[in-house]
Amino acid sequence: MTEAAARRAPGTPCWVSLMVHGMDATQEFYGALFGWEFRPGPQQLGPYVRALLDGKQVAGIGQLPPDRQLPIAWTPYLASDDVDATAETVRHCGGTVGVGPLDAGEAGRLAIGSDPAGAVFGIWQAAEHVGSAVTGVPGAMAWNELVTRETASVAKFYQAVFGYSEEAVVSADFDFLTLHLAGHPVASVHGVGHALPRDHGPHWMTYFTVKDVDEAVERVADLGGHVVSAAREGSHGRVATVADPEGAEFSVVASPAA
């Protein structure tokens, strides 16, 4: 179990959050799927709850204003020591900042931006809330991957903003690289070219750990979600991509001990 009591190094994915229309139904879905319980969080952007796994914070779910027809999607938050400076760098490097920077009560300060290709991500400057308290165990975040058209140009943006180094997979037919901080992998970028769906542009994909991928996929369907990409053997074990009842896509990956 990976404890995470300390402030994360800038650029580390430290939290994931989902904005939805139906808060109650969404909490029921994820509570049944991952065993999450919920408690109120900062309300600066409207109603918001933090998901708890065995008493430890793992994710956030917020209420979209009724008049906002935004894509329903899980959004990773990347750590920053100075969200205002990071937001300025995002703009300078060709990205946009759509929300903030603004304070989230005593928890910290945030902004929500997008890279030059349009993938949305958050920026989090921790105060009382440092982010996910546990990762890599069933029901918690395992990994975050940027799915985009091609890695080269967009990776340069993230390197410039967050100081990542990169490690590419050398392959004639596979455009994939891993983003590193201080020698440790923290996220990946997958260029899929024309395989990117027209109705679902470049986006960050959050992976959650489960004990049994096939069982989780079946549970998703039973709970009103659907399968986007059937269970398969991936480079890090069995994985599948699914969507919740409002359409937010995420992947489930088998825990290493499974």
From TrEMBL:
PROSITE patterns: VOC
Occurrences of domain VOC (ranges): 12-126, 140-255
A Pfam family annotated for this UniProt entry: Glyoxalase_6
Entry protein name: VOC family protein
Record organism: Streptomyces endophyticus
